[in-house]
Amino acid sequence: MKIAIFGSTGLLGKALAEKYKENELKLFSRTEIDNKQKFVIDYMNIENELENFFDNWKPDIIINTIAIVDLKYCEENLKEAKYVNSIIAESLAKVAKKYNAYFIHISTDHFFSDSLKYHNENASVKILNNYAETKFEAEKKVLQEYKKSLIVRTNILGFRYSKKKSFFEWLLFALENKEEISLFNDFVTSPISVNLLSNILLLCKKSNLSGIYNISSSEAIDKYSFGYKVAKRFNLSFENVKMRKTIQSDIKRAITLGLDVSKIEKALNIKMPTIDETIESLYREYKKGKE
What we know:
The chain is an alpha/beta fold. It contains ten helices and 13 strands.
């Protein structure tokens, strides 16, 4: 199978490239890496540039993981955030439609801040910041352009393996080094490891799913409780971790991000992973990296 991955140097893009390495891959990013499968591309001229690749190499799947996720940066650079988070997604949807490829767009869960613990795909969206605005706009533009697209709302965890640590790497490093940190007890998500998500995306292609789907763990958990579970599974002390509540600054943040996964479970006839199973997946990856 021919798979094109955009944002291949990011947390999810790297994981997808590793998981799908037995397939025929083309990996696209803005930064150059010494890899025969990776290509530097000008995202400002993406549709024209991709003709050079796809006219003779028609992908079966195009996956867009490109995003600016830094909330503060999005607030201060709305034009760039809109281009990266929304316009590029729309352009890739056009490309996928042109080449009749299955298009997967990775969205977000930053749409909810209410009294609900779980949100299905039809739940009311509350836009609190530029990041959420640009990601929600992308969902609409992608489906308007190419109705066969799959929009994935999710919250991912994994190892970035770079100077900039992912949230999970930061948490694990702090626990291992007994650093004093604080974790929110009122910021709720339904996280899934990038490895588990990678497997599910191929099942979506096999079933030819389209539209918006929540793909995450089957449970919602606050950051403090999640940290405790991680410490327990990795056999690390939790005594230096303090509990705190979120403080809303000038940048408003959605804090009840739990996702209802019943739609994807029914569509694929599978059970989505629990929080413990997600942590176990991360633990196995960690151990494998130590070998």
